Amino acid sequence: MNSQSLPTTSTASISLTQRLIAASLACLLGAGLVFLAGFSHIDAIHNGAHDTRHSEGFPCH
Amino acid sequence: MYKRIAFTAGFAGLLAALVLSLLQGLWITPMILEAETYESAVEAHTHTADALIHHHEETAWAPDDGWQRTLSTLGGNLVVAVGFGLILAGLFTLRAPSQAWQGLLWGAAGYLAFCMAPSLGLPPELPGTAAAELTARQGWWVSTAAATACALALLFLTRQWALRLVALALLALPHIIGAPQPAGQASLAPESLQHHFQMAALISNAVFWIVLGWLSAWFYTRDIAENT
């Protein structure tokens, strides 16, 4: 009730460049995590995430 | 903004990973374990033949069957789910959903790009299935997912017909090139188990993506008024 904030959403108030940077960083980090668990050739990671890879349909062996 | 991305990906990823793990534990993992019995039967046979010349190989860590393996798989699911959640939340900063249900469409798009399209050429497979060289398949898988994701963005987020034609070409291209296939088709597990597994994996991933998409949009829109 006593909020002084402007009626704009946060997305609209942040510049496109800043949003592009955030989106790129998030996508890169996200893809990195998926690669780590799903595509890494390191044996221990392969073994640990083996069932994840098979059920997600990632190429495994 | 970064806080919201992390919050969205973290919570939506965690919950979607739990749903996937539940489906896995009840439905998929039993089939993987069954397929491994066929695989290890063959391995035991070949190993006894060369047991005399067997040297101690350095084997990498692998979780023991049971709770270790379950936890390890849960961890794997969590990493993958948070990863996909980060991609979704990142895209939301460019095109924010105004309602949580819109996340269902994002989830469906994720499913098409990261599950359906790659599985047309490389269906989910059980352990002990003949397949082409791993790196080649991974390359095809990633290219197909990326091409499909770009195609869906062009199809649904642009309004120019020329771009939509490019999108159709991008959708078709990986399948025209074709996925790397093994020299001979062979599977140790019976065909019925293989089919059942593929169906289970495709359905579980559909549930996973719908949950991930919807929850990501829900957390994202819920937070929109509170944070910058």
Automatic annotation (TrEMBL), chain A:
- Record keywords: Membrane, Transmembrane, Transmembrane helix
Q: What is a single Pfam family found in this protein's UniProt entry?
A: CbtB
State which residue ranges cross the membrane. 20-39
- What is the name listed in the Swiss-Prot or TrEMBL entry for this protein? Cobalt transporter
Q: Please spell out the taxonomic lineage of the organism that makes this protein.
A: Bacteria, Pseudomonadati, Pseudomonadota, Gammaproteobacteria, Pseudomonadales
TrEMBL record, chain B:
Q: Does the keyword Transport apply?
A: no
InterPro entries given in the database record = CbtA_put
Q: Where does the signal peptide begin and end?
A: none
Report keywords, A-Z: Membrane, Transmembrane, Transmembrane helix
Query: Source organism's superkingdom?
Result: Bacteria
Show the stretches that span the lipid bilayer: 74-94, 101-120, 140-157, 162-179, 199-220
Under which name does UniProt file this protein? CbtA family protein
